[in-house]
User: Fold these one by one.
Assistant:
Number 1:
Amino acid sequence: MAFAGLLFPILGYFFIALWGLLGLLKVAVTILTHPFTALKKTTREIPPACLLDPALGSHEYVTANGLKFHCVCAGDTSKPLMLLLHGFPEFWFSWRHQLKAFSKDYHVVAVDMRGYGDSDKPDGVASYTLDKLGKDIADLIPALGYSACVLVGHDWGGAVAWRVADTNPELIDKLVIMNCPHLSIMGQELTNGWGQLLKSWYIFMFQVPWLPEFTIGLHDYRNFNAIFRGRKAGVKNRDQFPAEVVEAYKYSFSRPGGLTGPINYIRAIYKTRSFLFPRTRKTIDIPTLLLWVSSLSISVLVFVASSVEGPSVKTTMWRVTQRYPELVDRHIVLNCPHGRFEI
């Protein structure tokens, strides 16, 4: 706790300053070595056709927690609700395959979370605290006409799903989390040593004002090519991400404010220290499926419905299985890169 209370903030400011200087240096070198292409921007006024595909569902706007949310809905409204929460850097389109696959049995809703896509983008880092993000979803479920749902969250959407499970468990029939540790465990790992702290370098880099947005936008948002088609990102089959799909992400994030809101999620969680001292229930009594992926495999872990004490997800699934003998099933799926659950 002493590390969390004293050394972590000091190290945090050091890393923020370090990444700020390195980022400025990288930007300067990039512009000097590629003066004609580095600052190039394409005006994207018309969405790619894949975003308008009627087979994915209908586009609707729902008001919740004082904001307007863009949702893509598929399946009969008489069926149970499955609500899909995307991660970073993603938006509703990341769930395009799930919208089709699960609409036979559920009313599936993929939402652009606050700050993303066509949903409202409130100003300021304080508008993106985990409490407010959780309240969005807690209000969105009844706004969609349901008393509870199957809640599915990936990455930062997983963090929000954990928060809803903590504050409003009555709204969740089943919980599915993809690649997101429970926040209490994330806090422990960040403050217990150097390993996870160094792996979470991006948290500090994104604290620098405007620089992350500017860097990601260089070369007409070429970073999205690397994220979705790059070998270093662990992508094994580039055919899963054709040019039109990558262009859909560039379209969404190149719009005014398209990057600032999403990056403010990370800025807010650092500024509020909510990952260090999260307010969480001792147990999660919701049937929970946890999917964890490495560059080589996905571990699928099904928790029993009763008394799962703060699901402990550290850096490898092996350590989780050691800590929780309650796991009732596990499968390994090979060759899935981190974060690419849309495959």
Note: The longest strand covers residues 67-74.
Number 2:
Amino acid sequence: MFSSSNITSTHPAVFVLMGIPGLEHLHNWISIPFCSAYTLALLGNCTLLFIIQADAALHEPMYLFLAMLATIDLVLSSTTLPKMLAVFWFRDREISFYGCLVQMFFLHSFSIMESAVLLAMAFDRYVAICKPLHYTTVLTGPLITKIGMAAVSRAVTLMTPLPFLLKRFRYCRGPMIAHCYCEHMAVVRLACGDTRFNNIYGIAVAMFIVVLDLLFVILSYIFILRAVLQLASQEARYKAFGTCVSHIGAILAFYTPVVISSVMHRVARRAAPHVHILFANFYLLFPPMINPIIYGVKTKQIRERVLGLFPRKNV
């Protein structure tokens, strides 16, 4: 019975996050841009949420989707960055097994939600430019709520199996995770037994989300571009397409690191592990930091309200 109980103790009590293997001596320096990016993400996204909540004029579909994006970015960055900084600054590398699964669930779920919200924002721009007379009747409050709930439901449904799939494994390759946070495949590499289903499931979900969402985003912009080119004056074309610039920036900020990281894994397989980990961290840090800046600079209504937060000195 004793040996049987040992065999059924399938997972370690804690995992140990190694940070960025090969660059441990630079952790303190690396933490400076990481901490700066996290601070900017917190300030920027909290400011966006405050402005949208406080100003009734901004309670429109475009800004409600932007509020969803800001909330997701806050959760996404806060899921990983505090623990990452603890690893860099205090060598606090231990994370409980269940804490690791929770971090992984939130990380991947909110990444999927962000993709869904970017798709919803593309739909918003499509209706605003291609069907302007129907904008208020199509994008109603109840529909926006349903879109938000669908984004959450899809992410939770796709990611709920992951913790249970990982919980069934024995971890005989030690507790050392060669990463800054609990990324799915980094944990799978420590497991014994047949992990093919986890590998296939992870790749299938990633491909399904990226390909499907990006395809619909591209289709939306094909229709938008066609509608813009049919406008009579050049000024009207610039104005119409100008409303899409911020959203295009957010799409590029989110999907470009994903594509680069995916290509790196396939093209540069022999690259040092820290190269892949730095790209993965860039994917986590960059969108939450840059999205508030993009929308703050390029969206007139947001920019005016941000500037209004600072009292002007009378000359």
Note: The first strand starts at residue 14 and ends at 17.
